[in-house]
Design goal:
Oligomer: single chain
Strand content: 25-35%
Structural class: alpha/beta
Shape: elongated
């Protein structure tokens, strides 16, 4: 006997048990209608012994619609659990008087009444003429129930698992509503590394990417006929649902060898098949992108509104390619819509002669492997060559070495791209007269070099409407103080009017052709004097710095919703130092310890939806640096995950 037969048989038994004997006079015209919620597959928690059964929780609310009812046509009801014979899936419905003054009453104009009911009873799902309009929630959170066992289960937010019920009946003593789930449910098991000598896998969640039959904001569902209404005009190219894990105060699970984690995702009720394949992608720090595709091969199809268990392959023991999070994204997404983790003074992770000016722990290769895609580089002249510095301190890298590394990354990972924020570090070379000619020559050289993986130049000129597809396999150079390096004019894109004010700024950003102009929001308040403080109150800098960061975040979060800001770019520095005189490494650490966790908590909260822009941070990859907890491992992955939580605007 298959699962569907079992469920049907149980449902019939439960239905028979739900025929409570109400007083006959309650079925008369003008009297309140009494409701009973039944059937095994209802709300709002999964049964511990049967993962196909969903049980009601006392206080759950449903909304019931009836056009034939007298006066009130819709009302919200609360579930009262019915425990008779252990029937946790059954409940009576009582009017939620704190929401509705009056409930549904039998009408006298017609004997036949048509009832449509939905769960949850909020604005995410509404009904008109038997058609439910359901909000698509692409940002779902599963909460860990048992973190001590080898098999960790994270319970989903069941308000994402929409339920509907319908019944046409003449007045009866009790209207029995048989709720059924309409979302396609994916129960995804994640397996740890197989080598016990490896570090734990830090899993933050999974994303489900629908490629063809997609719904961005909402979908319509015909309740009576149990089918989605497919509107060709509402379809876009690819929609991603991000399912993150909440583990106590953490937004990740450390999976040791032999452990597994199960997450549950809800996606709109469209058949998963060759015409509509989906891709499930694991989000795990410091590892290759692990993904599986369903719908194409035999046995991987999933019927709409059904439930499927899926087991992903084990997390790789070693990193081969790195966290290529850009590769799965749509070509047509505007780059301005992305959330991009970056590193401030990126080259200092490879070494500076002493602690002054050191802002990174990880080398450039490791930064790229963990998903960093924006690099703040500070070139200057030294002995007729271009080296990389931080202020007056030289790093161990010269320009040519870094460009060779970038070219290697992009030839091996042509689905990715790199953004380089350039600033002439004239504090080091005292505005050397050689600077303009040398730097222009270096840029012209890499622009003339072809990436063998793409057959195109390793670079691309800035335009505000650049897309992911146009950027793949390329470096985008953005130079602070966009000026000619010599009389031939600018070679790369850049911006004018850089500001360190705590209020941030909006400045023009150009390509080599000044007609390719856009607007850049910037925030680079890095010292207490920029924050309007002095030696008497400089210790307030971390608080002022966070206010500056958050202000820019609240602007970039609207890039995908405000048509006027679709191609606005943003560079938001979390970097800064708390010293009162000079920029020591501990000063940068102190700032990171104060603000990275705030940033992390903000963008991992269920209320946060939207782009972060380009984020330039210190000490990426490190949970601790020196004696400071800097959260440099958590923040970049949260920024990467953020790209899968909202629908980014595409080029049409």
């Amino acid at each position: 006997m298959n699962n569907r037969t079992i469920i049907f048989a149980i449902a019939l038994a439960v239905l028979a048990s739900c025929q409570e004997k109400w007083a006959p006079e309650n079925a008369g015209t003008g009297n309140n209608i009494r409701f009973c919620a039944t059937k095994t597959a209802t709300k709002t928690v999964y049964d511990d012994e049967n993962d196909l059964q969903i049980n009601w929780v006392a206080g759950d609310q449903v909304k019931i619609y009836c056009a034939e009812a007298e006066d009130v046509k819709e009302a919200t009801y609360k579930v009262t659990r019915k425990e008779t014979l252990g029937q946790k899936h059954k409940g009576h419905l009582q009017l939620a008087t704190e929401i509705n003054k009056d409930g549904l009453k039998w009408g006298g104009d017609t004997d036949e009444h048509n009832f449509f009911a939905v769960y949850p009873a909020n604005t995410t799902i509404t009904v008109e003429d038997g058609i439910a309009t359901c909000k698509v929630n692409t940002n779902q959170i599963c909460t860990v129930r048992n973190s001590s066992d080898d098999h960790i289960v994270a319970d989903p937010d069941m308000t994402n698992a929409y339920m509907v019920a319908d019944l046409s009946t003449q007045p009866v003593d009790s209207v029995n509503l048989h709720f059924r789930p309409i979302m396609t449910t994916l129960k995804i098991k994640i397996q740890a590394k197989t080598d016990g000598n490896q570090t734990d896998a830090m899993v933050t969640g999974v994303s489900i990417i629908s490629k063809t039959k997609c719904f961005t904001d909402k979908f319509s569902y015909d309740i009576e006929n149990s089918q989605i209404i497919y509107d060709e005009n509402a379809v876009t190219e690819s929609v991603t649902t991000m399912v993150t894990v909440k583990n106590g105060s953490n937004n990740f699970v450390d999976l040791a060898t032999g452990r597994t984690l199960t997450l549950t995702a809800f996606i709109p009720p469209v058949d998963v098949d060759a015409d509509n394949p989906i891709q499930i992608q694991l989000h795990c720090q410091h590892t290759d992108v692990l993904k599986t595709t369903l719908g194409i091969k035999a046995g991987t199809q999933i019927a709409a509104s059904s439930k499927r268990k899926i087991t992903l392959p084990n997390v790789p023991n070693t990193v081969q390619k790195g966290n290529n999070w850009i590769t799965p994204l749509d070509d047509n997404i505007y780059v301005s819509q992305l959330s991009i983790p970056g590193t401030h003074d990126a080259a200092t992770g490879d070494g500076t002669p002493f602690s002054l000016g050191k802002t990174q722990e990880m080398k450039l290769d490791a930064q790229f492997e963990m998903g960093i895609r924006a690099f703040d580089l500070r070139p200057a002249v030294s002995s007729g060559n271009i080296i990389l510095c931080h202020g007056a301190v030289a790093t161990s890298f010269n320009w040519d070495q870094v460009m060779e590394r970038f070219k290697f990354y992009l030839s091996e990972n042509p689905g990715e791209f790199i953004i380089v924020a350039l600033r002439h570090e004239d504090e080091y070379d005292n505005n050397s007269s050689q600077w303009g000619g040398l730097m222009q020559g270096k840029l012209e050289t890499i622009k003339a070099t072809t990436n063998p993986a793409t057959g195109e130049s390793y670079t691309i000129d800035f335009r505000p409407d650049l897309t992911v597809g146009e950027m793949r396999g390329k470096v985008l150079f953005l130079c602070r103080d966009w000026t000619a390096y010599n009389s031939n004019g600018p070679v790369v894109g850049g911006y004018m009017g850089w500001s360190h004010d705590k209020e941030g700024a909006e400045v023009p950003i150009y390509g080599p052709d000044s007609n390719s102009r856009g607007t850049l929001n910037i925030q680079d308040c890095y010292h207490y004097s920029d924050a309007g403080l002095n030696l008497l109150n400089y210790r307030k800098f971390p608080e002022r710095k966070w206010e500056a960061i958050e202000k820019q975040l609240n602007i970039s979060a609207t890039f995908h919703t405000n048509p006027e800001l679709v191609n606005r770019w943003c560079i938001n520095h979390t970097s800064g130092y708390t010293d009162n005189l000079i920029s020591t490494t501990n000063g940068y650490r102190n700032n990171a310890a104060n603000n990275h966790i705030k940033f992390y908590n903000k963008i991992t909260s269920p209320d946060w939806v939207g782009s972060t822009g380009i984020i330039l941070s210190d000490f990426v990859g490190a949970r601790t640096s020196g004696n400071y907890t800097v959260y440099g491992d958590l923040l970049p992955q949260a920024i990467i995950d953020n790209n899968y939580k909202y629908h980014m605007v595409r080029k049409q």
